[in-house]
Design goal:
alpha/beta; about 190 residues
């Protein structure tokens, strides 16, 4: 597995490296700095257990946790995974976004009619939405089974992850395997380590 951490009762025995990496990412978010962590490995190796640890640690502190999972049957549905992750913030925050971002995200999520939105604007909208949500409370976004994310969601999440700097946001992904990657999930693995 590409990351480790744990303690008594965490289900992460002898995974100090994984636990340490998770703790560093969450600590950075608590301190007001963004961080990204990608946990990767073969099926059954315990990636979800690492994410569960991250959720428990984040929830036990002052981080708001949003959890989502990639779904194989939704691979061809553009923005499906992104919708799952962002839906808790859409309500009051959508109207606060700059109009081009707001319109692009509203069309992407099926809230308004219109031509297919520009992915750059959708990525900016996600970046703005996450940053605005983190103003109220540090944020931990935890995404399991990232290998099943649709391409449009991956592109927007990587775009946002590369631009988050001084926002209290932790992005934690679990990705199966290290092999082929036609949807661009390998871009997540290329994000810098915490």
């Amino acid at each position: 597995m590409g990351v480790s951490s744990g303690g008594p009762g965490t289900g992460l025995l002898d995974r100090r490296v994984e636990r340490g990496a998770v703790d560093r990412v969450l600590d950075r978010a608590r301190a007001g700095n963004s961080a990204v962590l990608v946990v990767h490995g073969e099926p059954g190796i315990g990636k979800t257990v690492v994410l569960d640890y991250a959720v428990r640690r984040a929830s036990a502190s002052d981080l708001r946790v949003v959890r989502a999972s990639g779904v194989e049957s939704e691979l061809e549905l553009a923005y499906a995974a992104l919708h799952q992750l962002c839906v808790p913030f859409i309500g009051p925050r959508l109207e606060q976004l700059p109009r081009p971002q707001r319109d692009a995200l509203a069309v992407a999520f099926g809230l308004r009619e219109g031509p297919a939105p520009d992915r750059f604007l959708v990525g900016l909208a996600v970046l703005s939405l996450l940053a605005a949500a983190a103003e109220d409370q540090p944020l931990a976004c935890v995404m399991d089974d990232a290998q099943w994310l649709d391409r449009a969601s991956v592109q927007c999440l990587v775009f946002a992850a590369r631009r988050l700097l001084a926002e209290p946001i932790a992005l934690i992904f679990a990705v199966r395997g290290a092999g082929g990657d036609p949807r661009g999930v390998r871009q997540l693995r290329a994000l810098p380590d915490p």
